[in-house]
Structures are given as C-alpha cells and as structure tokens.
Write a structure and sequence with these properties.
4-stranded parallel β-sheet, 2 domains, alpha/beta, Rossmann fold, 16 helices, 6-stranded parallel β-sheet, 13% strand, 373 residues
Length: 373
C-alpha cells in the first residue's frame, strides 16, 4: 500500500517505513534487532531503495483488491517465511496462515459503500476479506477510538485485541511567511485561477465526503460574501456527478473552483492562503487534513461526527451538523467573520498538532511487532 503520492493509506505506509528505518539507524533496539521485508508494486518498488541493511524490498505487482492479491501475493508472502506480517490495510490474503497484525483505518465501505461497490460479488468479497483480517489477526491497530468502537459494534471485534495508535502530521506543512504568501498568491492564480478570499476543501469526491451539502452551504455564504470562492481539490469522480451538478443547481459557477490533484507545495499554499479549511465529511476513520490545516495555521470548520471531533479536539475547530446546510453555513460564517475566534482557533491548532507524530506512531507499532510474534 506504499505510495509516494501521499494520500491516505499510502502516506501512512510511507511514514511507517521511513520512521522504522530512522529508528533502526539510531540503534533503537526494538527496531534494529529485526529484519524487515517490504512488499511493493511498481513503480514504487523501482523508486524505493532501503536506507538500512535490515530492510529489503520484494516486488509483488498485484493490484489491490484483486484475485492476484489473494493468490500471487499469498505465494510471495509464504516464500518469505515471515515471523510476523503487518498488513497496513484490511486487504490481507484470506488463506495466509502465519501470524499477522492489521491496521484498519475505517469501515467506510461498510457504512458508505458508494457506487464502486454496487456489485454483489464485490460486496461479498469485501465482507469476507475484512472479517478474515479482524478474526485471524493477532492484533488490530485502529487509527482512532472511533474506528475501534466501530470494529467492536459492527464486527464484534474483541476490545482487548484492538490498540489505538494515532497517525502523525508531516513537518512539510507549515505557515508561510509574507514573501512566500505573496509569491504563492500569484502561482495559485496562474495555475488554478484561485483568488482570495476562499474556503478550501481537499480530498476525494465520494458520497461520504458530503460535497453537495458543502456547495449548498457555500451558496448561502456567498450571498453575504459576494467575493468569496470555494476551492475543491482532488480528482473528480465520474461516479459522483452530483458534485458538479450541485454547482449548477446552486448557480455558483465561477465561484467554485475545481483544481484537480495538486502538488504538496501547492496544497500547503492553499491551506495557508484560505480563510478556512472546511471538512464536511459524514464519516472518517482519522481525518489527516484537519491536522495538516492546523499545522499551516489555518482556521478549521468541520463536521461533529465520527472521529473528527476526536482528532481535531473540542476547542480547536468550529463544528457543524454535516446534514444541516444552514448550520454548516452559519458556523463557517462565524469562523470567517470573528478575528478573535480565528486567533484562538489558530493558536489552539498549533498546540493540538503537537499531540501527533509519525515517529511516535512507528515506535508504538514496533513495540507491537515485538510482542505479537
């Protein structure tokens, strides 16, 4: 699941590998004493070179959620004769018999299956694979207390088998100085047509991300703030045409800007220059963009459901009901119009992100490795 594109599970896996190697180089005994086998698909396999002698890479080239993942990957795993395998997502081969642990980030596919899971074979395969991972694993890592609760309530997972280990946030996300802000204002305008003032959303366009309601709330806001824009990053999804349809329905063409996928540098600039980062999701396992925005010194407005208040912290964001468009608009308006509140949220956000560290995550996971064999 390692990805250099820094999204979701790819970033989680990348940061775990990077920090385990760092701990090994520093002579941290719980890591340095082990040998690690890293299973890759291309092009990540070709691009990656282990930095430590106790790490090696193996090429798999099996598409995620495929038959090849259940067969070809299984054969390669068995060949390595591992003492312990860590699957960083639930998609473990169901016939794998040796000891393993699994990270489960969320159960979005169960609660919000979306339009990619309309076929019965897909739904049945998903249920079988995730149940197998939950039942057969020696330990489950959940990325939030909310995910742990979901696993207990919906899959009857054993509570004492689940350990919550939070994700981290990258140091690359940081406040820009005045010169950088001026430079990036020009860059973002030239590349994407983004001009201030604007609200920002980052991420995919799937149903549970709740973008049509965000657009409807933006319509209310734009009547009071005619110069305000809404910037939506991420790859547009043809399975969810209602996102674009809502823009036309609300008559806010030209005020909603779809940037597509953006580079990390541009993302950092978009966070920095926005009036507020808005996270309207109906469900999240963790919610990494909340921390990225806070670390950039950005005001955060977010849903009051699932793991979002847990990760953001009660005093560090303005929360709204994601099903209530009027409440969403009202809370965002409050956040962008009150300078005292903005200052408080930004300072609280800087303090909040100190609680999250990829290094701390890797250290806690390494301890699980050494007690689960």
């Amino acid at each position: 699941m390692f990805k250099s594109s820094f999204t979701g599970i790819g970033r989680y896996t990348f940061e775990l590998v990077k920090n385990l190697q760092r701990l090994s180089s520093e002579g941290y005994e719980p890591v340095a004493k082990n040998e690690y086998v890293l299973f890759f698909n291309d092009p990540e396999y070709s691009a990656f070179t282990p930095s430590q002698p106790n790490f090696k890479k193996v090429l798999v080239n099996a598409e995620h959620y495929s038959v090849a993942e259940q067969t070809k990957f299984l054969k390669i795993l068995n060949k390595e004769s591992l003492d312990l395998m860590h699957f960083t997502h639930f998609n473990a081969p169901i016939l794998y018999k040796k000891p393993f642990i699994v990270t489960i980030h969320d159960i979005t596919h169960t609660l919000f299956p979306g339009r990619k899971m309309t076929g019965l074979p897909y739904r049945l395969a998903y249920q079988k694979v995730i149940k197998n991972a939950i039942q057969k694993s020696k330990k489950i890592i959940a990325v939030s207390q909310n995910t742990k609760k979901d696993l207990e309530n919906i899959f009857q997972a054993q509570s004492d088998k689940i350990q919550v280990i939070y994700e981290g946030v990258n140091d690359e996300f940081h406040p820009l100085n005045d010169d950088q802000r001026a430079e990036y204002s020009k860059i973002l305008n030239e590349k994407y047509g983004v001009t201030k003032p604007y609200l920002l959303y980052t991420g995919v366009h799937r149903y549970h991300k709740n973008l049509p309601r965000l657009i409807a709330a933006f319509k209310i806001l734009s009547t009071k703030n005619p110069d305000l824009k809404l910037v939506i990053t991420g790859k547009e999804d043809p399975l969810y045409p209602e996102v674009n349809e809502e823009v036309f329905h609300q008559g806010v063409q030209g005020k909603v800007i779809f940037t597509g996928l953006v580079s990390e540098d541009d993302l950092i600039a978009l966070y920095n220059l926005s009036l507020a980062y808005v996270f309207p999701s109906l469900y999240e396992g963790f919610g990494l963009p909340l921390l990225e925005a806070m670390q950039c010194g950005t005001v955060v407005c977010a849903s009051d459901v699932s793991s979002i208040p847990e990760v953001a912290g009660a005093e560090n964001a303005v929360f709204f009901d994601p099903l209530n468009v009027e409440d969403m608009a009202e809370k965002i308006e409050k956040a962008i119009s009150d300078p005292v509140l903005q200052w408080k949220l930004i300072q609280n956000g800087f303090n909040r992100v100190k609680d999250f560290s990829w290094g701390k995550m890797a250290t806690e996971i390494a301890q699980i490795y050494n007690t689960s064999q």
